[in-house]
Specification:
Elements lengths: L7 H8 L15 H14 L15 H17 L3 H6 L5
Helix pairs in contact: 1-2, 2-3
Length: 90
Protein backbone atom coordinates (compact mmCIF):
# COMPACT_ATOMS: atom_id res chain seq x y z
CA UNK A 1 0.00 0.00 0.00
CA UNK A 2 1.47 3.33 -1.01
CA UNK A 3 2.07 5.77 1.81
CA UNK A 4 -0.44 8.29 0.48
CA UNK A 5 -3.16 5.62 0.60
CA UNK A 6 -3.07 5.39 4.41
CA UNK A 7 -5.68 7.17 6.51
CA UNK A 8 -4.65 9.62 9.23
CA UNK A 9 -5.32 6.97 11.90
CA UNK A 10 -3.28 4.38 10.02
CA UNK A 11 -0.38 6.81 9.69
CA UNK A 12 -0.49 7.42 13.45
CA UNK A 13 -0.13 3.68 14.03
CA UNK A 14 2.69 3.41 11.47
CA UNK A 15 4.66 6.36 12.82
CA UNK A 16 4.16 5.81 16.57
CA UNK A 17 7.36 4.58 18.20
CA UNK A 18 6.65 4.76 21.94
CA UNK A 19 5.69 1.49 23.59
CA UNK A 20 3.71 -1.40 22.21
CA UNK A 21 0.99 -1.21 19.60
CA UNK A 22 -2.22 -3.23 19.26
CA UNK A 23 -4.15 -3.00 16.00
CA UNK A 24 -7.77 -4.04 16.41
CA UNK A 25 -10.05 -3.51 13.43
CA UNK A 26 -12.42 -5.36 11.15
CA UNK A 27 -11.61 -7.43 8.10
CA UNK A 28 -10.42 -5.43 5.12
CA UNK A 29 -9.54 -2.37 7.18
CA UNK A 30 -5.84 -2.35 6.29
CA UNK A 31 -4.37 -3.90 9.47
CA UNK A 32 -1.87 -6.02 7.56
CA UNK A 33 -0.80 -3.11 5.35
CA UNK A 34 -0.24 -0.97 8.45
CA UNK A 35 1.77 -3.72 10.15
CA UNK A 36 3.88 -4.26 7.04
CA UNK A 37 4.63 -0.55 6.67
CA UNK A 38 5.40 -0.17 10.37
CA UNK A 39 7.70 -3.20 10.31
CA UNK A 40 9.53 -2.05 7.17
CA UNK A 41 10.01 1.49 8.48
CA UNK A 42 11.31 0.10 11.77
CA UNK A 43 13.95 -1.85 9.83
CA UNK A 44 14.88 0.85 7.33
CA UNK A 45 14.47 4.07 9.31
CA UNK A 46 14.97 2.99 12.92
CA UNK A 47 17.63 0.38 12.05
CA UNK A 48 15.96 -2.36 14.08
CA UNK A 49 16.88 -5.92 13.20
CA UNK A 50 14.17 -8.31 12.07
CA UNK A 51 15.01 -10.68 14.94
CA UNK A 52 14.47 -7.87 17.47
CA UNK A 53 10.78 -7.41 16.65
CA UNK A 54 7.73 -9.34 17.79
CA UNK A 55 4.70 -9.40 15.54
CA UNK A 56 1.82 -11.68 16.52
CA UNK A 57 -1.08 -12.94 14.45
CA UNK A 58 -3.84 -15.36 15.39
CA UNK A 59 -3.41 -17.88 12.58
CA UNK A 60 -0.59 -19.52 10.66
CA UNK A 61 -2.20 -18.30 7.43
CA UNK A 62 -2.11 -14.68 8.64
CA UNK A 63 1.51 -15.09 9.76
CA UNK A 64 2.51 -16.44 6.35
CA UNK A 65 0.76 -13.57 4.57
CA UNK A 66 2.40 -11.01 6.85
CA UNK A 67 5.84 -12.59 6.36
CA UNK A 68 5.45 -12.66 2.58
CA UNK A 69 4.23 -9.07 2.39
CA UNK A 70 7.04 -7.82 4.66
CA UNK A 71 9.62 -9.71 2.61
CA UNK A 72 8.26 -8.27 -0.65
CA UNK A 73 8.14 -4.71 0.74
CA UNK A 74 11.72 -4.96 1.99
CA UNK A 75 12.93 -6.28 -1.38
CA UNK A 76 11.05 -3.53 -3.23
CA UNK A 77 12.96 -0.99 -1.13
CA UNK A 78 16.34 -2.62 -1.75
CA UNK A 79 16.71 -4.24 1.68
CA UNK A 80 17.48 -7.75 0.43
CA UNK A 81 19.46 -8.77 3.52
CA UNK A 82 16.60 -7.81 5.83
CA UNK A 83 14.17 -9.61 3.52
CA UNK A 84 16.26 -12.79 3.82
CA UNK A 85 16.23 -12.42 7.61
CA UNK A 86 12.45 -12.87 7.59
CA UNK A 87 12.80 -16.42 6.26
CA UNK A 88 13.42 -17.95 9.67
CA UNK A 89 11.69 -15.32 11.74
CA UNK A 90 8.04 -16.36 11.41
Amino acid sequence: MAENAFTAEQLLAIERREGDLLLDAGAGSGKTSVLVERFVRSVLEDRLEVAAMLTITFTDKAAAELRDRIRLALRERGADEAARATEGAF
